[in-house]
Design the sequence.
């Protein structure tokens, strides 16, 4: 059994999706694991991870608009220490996931044909987000 772990710094362009496919695939390749699992964890409370449609970007735009309606900046949030998008970003992240587990098959991420792994930034400004990627298997 092999266990390989690496920290990644991922830049975002502000609110929206950043494709993690190449970065995480690189960690899986360097791990040498052929069969196992890859766990990706985002070390932040105002961003989340999602496995989602990778062919039509309209899906991600629709998801962004939908989540914006659920947690709008215009709401009277009590917590606003870092600006008007602070608490809405925390609420959006609470609806998302801090980790994703993906099978590793044949030394590659076992995502479906139309699936991609994304970091979903919930703040308006650009950020550097830290991910912990752990690959376990044989």
Sequence:
């Amino acid at each position: 059994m092999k266990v390989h772990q690496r920290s990644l710094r991922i830049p975002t362009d502000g609110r929206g999706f950043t494709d993690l496919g190449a970065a995480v695939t690189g960690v899986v390749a360097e791990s040498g694991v052929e069969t196992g699992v890859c766990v990706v964890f985002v070390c932040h409370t105002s961003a989340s991870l999602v496995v989602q449609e990778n062919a039509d970007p309209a899906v991600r735009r629709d998801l962004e608009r939908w989540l914006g309606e659920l947690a709008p900046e215009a709401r009277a949030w009590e917590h606003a220490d870092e600006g008007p998008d602070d608490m809405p970003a925390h609420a959006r992240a609470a609806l998302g996931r801090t980790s994703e587990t993906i099978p590793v098959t044949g030394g590659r991420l076992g995502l479906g044909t139309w699936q991609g792994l994304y970091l979903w930034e919930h703040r308006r400004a650009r950020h550097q987000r830290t991910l912990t990627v752990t690959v376990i298997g044989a």
The mean pLDDT is 97. The radius of gyration is 16 Å. The first strand starts at residue 2 and ends at 11. The chain has one domain: 2-137.
